């Protein structure tokens, strides 16, 4: 157990930028921009706020003193709550994109950098099998990095909602608790967690393939992967006149799109359940799992037999 | 004595090139074995085969395990340093200690700290910030702190200056070696490790050309410096090498007695380096004859 934890620690030490520096920067940036946005709103808008906490039909008017676009605009608290909820989704999307970009980057370099700088010989001098090495990298890419980004997104959402609540209290004189009660905080949280698991399942073959190319490449795994895909595409199109590869890739990324949709529909909706079942029942998911297993075998074989550059 | 390393008929080929040719080894516990050979002789390939890092034909057993099938388990009792420049440059000393402590069940962090206390290496420093000598000290501290039965060193002092090379081997001898531990060192700088070894293996062109204890080596190889008048007699005794010397010609003999050679000139023990050159040059040495 200790050795497994140490392996994960090593990954964090080796790629601090991917694991926590990038999400921290994103966190700071989002909170900073949110604070500026709320500050601008505070200076540009005078709120005439009438809240009836026991009523579902709140009335909330915003009037601008300095002629903003919102001059005279009437808004309900529900609109503001929706905007906060919308902000939450945007935060999850931003962290999702950051996570995808950095995880692909991590997977591309995961099994090539130690071969390039020859530190693979040091790691191979320790009682550690390549199965452990490759599976650790895959778990990091498929589960730990998304989890880390999800936690950072959660922290950002909490901070963002606190700022929104503070703004509501200071400027609009509203009770922040009422705002908190109205936003679907836990629903969004649970939903993004469901999205995390489904994405992990669907993304597994993609990261396993990237890791295999990382174990295979001598210089650039991305270049090699691109060249192989291009070669297969051209070969298939010109020789056989078919386009199975393109269709497969389209279908695969279409599946990722469904995963994305799952994360942005109400938790209790039928659409979520139907999409989740569609994913879990898709043969592509299980074909992907089989491809992942083959890729892990290939990566271990390459690390055992052809690790030197 | 229990054999720590046993290899039978090891063959390895890269494409058309035969790298190892039917190598047989039997290394008992408590030995310091020098695997000596010129560049490209197959030293590293042989070590990699013994450590399960490359696949070679033949039977190999290290500490009773097959390195090809049980490499991770075998490495609990075996340490190796490929060369000291292989420590990851992004890691800090503190992280490195924590990492090895977490991975290796026989690593004593306390022991490593003790070795490092005598150096100027800071725990917060990254490996890339250390000098080459410091990296060597750090790697050595890690290895010394592992309770391993076999230590394999592949050109461990490559690129180091003479001071660090000396310190490296002194530490190895004083702090690591005992009667239960075995060390295999590969190098082509024979003279540097000669005083350390109990046994020597010469490898040339993928074949073991000499497998000898240092004790028997000293009685087996003699050097003769012969003047003009005795050179023909010396040649008739079939030296394994002949070369020019300041005071005449220098001959290296294998299996001759001091008494046989005494009358022909000045006789002394041949050094490991001289015998190594004699063994690996072979035809070249013969070509030099009579020149």
Structure, briefly:
The complex is a heterodimer of chains A (309) and B (291). Chain A is 77% helix and 4% strand. Chain A is mainly alpha-helical and 309 residues long.
Describe what this molecule looks like in 3D:
The complex is a heterodimer of chains A (309) and B (291). Chain A has one domain. Chain A has 12 helices and 2 strands, in the order H-H-E-E-H-H-H-H-H-H-H-H-H-H. Chain A has a two-stranded antiparallel ribbon with strand order 1-2. In chain A, helix 1 packs across helix 6. The longest helix of chain A has 41 residues. Chain A starts with a helix and ends with a helix. The C terminus of chain B is likely disordered. In chain B, strands 5-6-7-3-8-9 form a 6-stranded mixed β-sheet, with helices on both faces. The N and C termini of chain B lie far apart (47 Å). In chain B, helix 4 runs antiparallel to helix 5. Chain B contains 12 helices and 13 strands. At the A-B interface, helix 1 and helix 5 of A face helix 2, strand 5 and helix 3 of B. Chain A: This is ABC transporter permease. Chain A: It comes from Gilvimarinus gilvus.
